[in-house]
Write the structure tokens for this entry.
Amino acid sequence: MRAAFLAVFALTSVATPSVALELDFGVVKTLEQLALPTPDPANPVVCHGFGCAYRTTILLRHVDKAQIKKLFGPAAAKSAEGERKALAAAMAWFEKRVAAEAGTATAKARAGLGHAGDPSQFDCLDKTSNTVGVLAIVAQMGLLRHHTIDAPESRGFIIGGLPHTTAVVRERKGG
């Protein structure tokens, strides 16, 4: 009986309040136009191999959610700047957490087109999808207080070099 109580206590102590997540239509539409998956916080997918050529579903465990919650400490709750720092830390943690499952532990920063199709590498579309996925997890956990998830932004398709796409968060009015 004591073991059952401890198990229930452990589960409820790391549980986080979740909120229904409904992404803005513009975010979903942009992801569709880029042929990227719409994130599902309950079943996160890691894109890799350039253009989301490979998709690895990740099991998000209670201990993972507890770690994300830990990264969003008092500083994240107090200010938009603190929340952005927590988002950066959560993204860095997530990439390390999923590396073994997705086979991306040897990924190189700024992998060029010569790595296209290599399942161990990311391009900006993979990173955009993965970041929006992490943002969706954080939002569903009720930890995204000072920002909203906005549509990914792209640049450089005609003039200005190689195209690039990135995830975007917008600070809420009043921070």
User: Anything to note?
Assistant: The mean pLDDT is 84. The first strand starts at residue 45 and ends at 48. The beta strands are 45-48, 54-57, 147-155, 164-171.
